[in-house]
Putative damage-inducible protein DinB
Amino acid sequence: MTQELITSATVITPQELLEHWQGHRRVTRRTIEAFPETELFTFSVGGMRPFAELALEMFNMGNPGIDGIITGQWKPYGEQETVSAPKTKEALLYLWDELTEKLNRLWPQIKPERFHEVELAFGQWEGTIQFLLFYFIDNEIHHRAQGFVYLRALGIEPPHFWDRS
């Protein structure tokens, strides 16, 4: 595939893709904020993990994920460097905000052709970089939906999923 074909077939720019992801991250942040402190770390439905654990999984994909995209170096999932599990909502939101800034800072280093390169992320998921990014986003949406179920079970209205501002 030539660069000319890639360019003429562009539907979304890299910056638009980052904004799309960051929009989902803003909704997920509001989801974290909506939880009462205790329930964020303890409440679950049907044997699913508490939302704090799900949010930490999202962090543990996105944080080393952006590093892998930039460097081409991927450690197996679960073996990559992760932070210890936060014990408070404030600490979880701090991690979330750190990753938001890191994504904004590192994203411009991704060359447009990199999005079409194939890699084996975390020793498990093979695909183009754009596929892997969509996987990260889809995983976040999936787990955020679990958080919405938890909030509704707690009698709390979740944030509007369409408001990504």
In short: The chain has six helices and two strands. The mean pLDDT is 92.
